[in-house]
Amino acid sequence: MITKLISGKFNVWLILILLLTACGQKQQGVSESAATSTPAAAESQSSQTAPSPTPTEPVKAVPIEFTDVTAQAGIKFRHNNGAYGKKYLPETTGSGCAFLDYDNDGWQDLLLINSMDFEDAPKKRRSVMALYHNNQNGTFTDVTAQAGLARPMYGMGAAIGDYDNDGWQDIYVSCLGANHLFRNLGNGKFADVTAKTGVAGLPGDFSTSAAWLDYDKDGRLDLFVGNYVAWSIDKDLNCTLDGTNKSYCTPESYKGQTARLYHNLGNKFEEVTEKAGLNDPTSKSLGVATFDFNRDGWLDIFVSNDTQPNKLYKNNGNGTFSEVAVTAGVAFSEEGKARAGMGVDVADYDGSGYPSLIIGNFSNEMLGVYHNEGKSGLFIDEAPASTLGQATLLSLTFGLFFFDYDLDGRQDIFLANGHVADDINKVQPKITYAMPPKLFRNEGRKKFSEVSRKAGKPFQKASVARGTAYGDFDNDGDLDILVTTNGGPAMLLRNDGGNQNRFVKFRTVGSATNHDGIGTKITVVLPDGSKQWQMVHSGSSYCSQSELALTFGIGSADKIERVDIEWPSGKVEKLAGVAINQLHTLKEANGIAESKALPMAMPSPSPSPAATTVAPR
Fold it and tell me: Which among 373, 597, 492, 580 is positioned nearest to 112, based on CA atoms?
C-alpha cells in the first residue's frame, strides 16, 4: 500500500520519546496462577483500585490443539461477496462474526454476517446472515428465518449489546449502504428498529467495524460506527497491477468517510459525531476498539485506518473527545508512515496495569504492537524489534484478538490472515492470496513465541480470512475460535486441551451501569499478590464481536485471594472466596448472583430453540 510520510516535527518528537523511554525501566509481567473455592462475599468500596505489575517467570506450556468442528457442528454458512469479475472494492473486505447468547440459556450462539450480489450482477443469489442456535451438545441449528433475520443486505460487521437494558442482547449490523439495528424481543425473534432508532447512517456510508460503549456513563449503551471510503458502482475506478488486467483499487483511490457516534436517548439515538469532536472525513476506518487507555474512568475510542493515520480519541468526560493519536505515538508506524490498518484489539498483555494495542496491517508492514507506557500517555510499537514483527511481515491480517488460549494467566494472540488481491502472487511472488492463521503464546516478560505448527491442522490450512471472534461455545472453560472467510465458508475451531489449566469466568449485569456491564473492569488478585485484569468490551477484532463474558486463566493454582470489580457507575466491589472453574454472574452492588461449574454437561438430545428461551437476567 502507498503510505504517507509525516512531518519532520513528528520525527523529532519520536526521537525524544525513544530517549525518554530508554531512561526508564519498562514494567513487565502478567500474573501467575491462583484461585479459591469458598463462598463469595461482596464488600462495596468507594475508592477505585488499580492493578500493580508483577514480573512473571516462564510457565510450562500444556499440549493444546484446535480442531475444525464446523461440519460436525452443523454450520453450513458460506459468505457471498458478490464477486463476478468486475473487481469491485467491497468484494475484498469480507464480513465479520459474533458470539452471543441471544436466548439467555447460558450457551454461546453464533452470528455470521453475509453480503449479497451487486445490483448490476447478471444473476442474483439469495444470501443472508446466519444465526445459529447452540444445541448444547456440540451442534448448532440455523434459526435465521424464524428469528426474523433473513434479510438481504451487503453486511460487513456485527456489534452485540443490550441497548435498551431489557436483559436481551440486541444486534447491530454494519453494511455497505443502510445499517440495521435488530431489537431482541425475548422470544427468539428480532425486530428491525433501525428507522425508529435513527442508526442507519447515510445512504452512501460504507460501514465496517462498530462497537457499543457508554461514553457518557448515563447507564445506556451508545454506538460508534466506523466508515471506510466513498465507493459506489457509479464511482468505481479502473485500476491494474500488471498494466493490462483490472485489479482491485486501493483505498487511496477513494475519498474517506467520517465515523459516526450515536448517543442513546432511551428509545432512539441522536447522531453526535460533530458535537463530540469526532467528525473526520479523511478517515478510512476498518477496526474499532474501546478502552480506557489512561485509566481515568472514561472510555476512549481507537480507530485503525487503511492508508490514513490511526486515530485515538481521548474521552474528555464532558461528552466530547480529543484526537491524540500523534502525540500518543499510535498514528503511524515506527518509520513515521500511515499503514493499512485492519483489525485492532486491546489488552494488558504484560501486567503493566495499562491496556496496550495490537493492529493488523498489510503484507510487508507487519503487526503493530503498541505498548502503553502508562501515565505518560505514550505508546511504543514493540513489533519491529520482536519475533512478532518478523513472523508477521508477509501476512495481511484482518481479524485478530488477545485471548488466553492455554489459561496460564497471560494474554496470547490470534491472527486471521488473507490478502485482498487474488492475483497478488503475479507481482509479489512471496505473497499469497490465501494465508494460514497464526497463534502466538505469551511467554511473559513481553516475549511471544509462535506456536502455530503445534496448534492443530487449522493452522496449516490457508484461507482468505477476515472476521474472527472467540467464545466458549461448549462451556468447557477454554476459549474457542470463530473465523469468516471472504467468499468462502466459516470455520469453528474448538480448543482441545486449554482447560487442563484452571480458570474463572465472569458475566456482568449492571443496574446503574448498562445491563451488559460494558466498561466494567475486573481484577483477579492472587495469594502471592500478583494480579491480572480485563474490561468487558464490545467491538474489537475486524467487524466482529467476541463473547462479553471474561475468562481469566490461573494455571495450576487453586486459590483466588480477591476479585475487584469497578463498575462504570463508580461502584467498586471486592469479592473474597471466589470459586475456580466456574462461571459467575456478577450483579452490580450485589456480588455474585449465580455460579455454574464448568465444564457443563452436554445434554442429548438437545432442546429445541423455542424451549431454551428463558427470562432476562
Answer: 492
Q: How far apart are CA 458 and CA 269, in angstroms?
A: 42
Partners of 595 in the β-ladder: 584
Q: DSSP strand E in 170-233: where?
A: 170-175, 180-184, 190-192, 207-213, 222-227
> Are both 578 and 525 inside the same structural domain?
yes
Residue indicated by cell numbers 442474483: 124
Phi-psi region of 13 (alpha: psi -120 to 50; beta: other; left: phi over 0): alpha
DSSP 204: T
- The CATH number covering residue 432 comes to 2.130.10.10
- Count of the separate structural domains present in the chain: 2
- The chain-wide mean pLDDT, for the chain, equals 90
Strands 480-485 and 491-496: antiparallel
Residue pLDDT, tens place only, 238-252: 998 778 889 999 999
> Do 522 and 437 have their domain in common?
no
What does the DSSP 8-state code read for residue 293? T
> Is residue 573 included in any domain, yes or no?
yes
DSSP bridge pairs for 575 = 42, 563
Range of the domain at 565: 8-59+505-612
Residue 452 in any domain: the answer is: yes
Domain assignment present for residue 445? The answer is yes
* CA–CA distance, 291 with 296 (Å, rounded to integer): 11
Q: How far is CA 522 from CA 219, 493, 519, in A?
A: 18, 27, 10
Q: Where are the beta strands (DSSP E) in 230-299?
A: 239-240, 246-247, 260-264, 269-271, 285-291
Q: Which of 9-18, 225-234, 333-342 has the lowest mean pLDDT?
A: 9-18
Distance of CA 608 to the CA centre of its chain: 30
Quote the longest CA-to-CA distance of the chain.
71
- The Cα–Cα gap between 261 and 274 comes to 9
**What residues are paired with 381 via a beta bridge?**
370
Phi and psi at residue 142, in whole multiples of 5°?
Answer: -75, 115
Q: Where are the alpha helices (DSSP H) in 243-386?
A: 325-328
Mean pLDDT to the nearest integer, 7-24:
38
Query: Are residue 54 and residue 70 in the same domain, yes or no?
Result: no
Pick from 500, 525, 549: which residue ends a domain? 500
354: nearest Cα among 310, 271, 294: 294
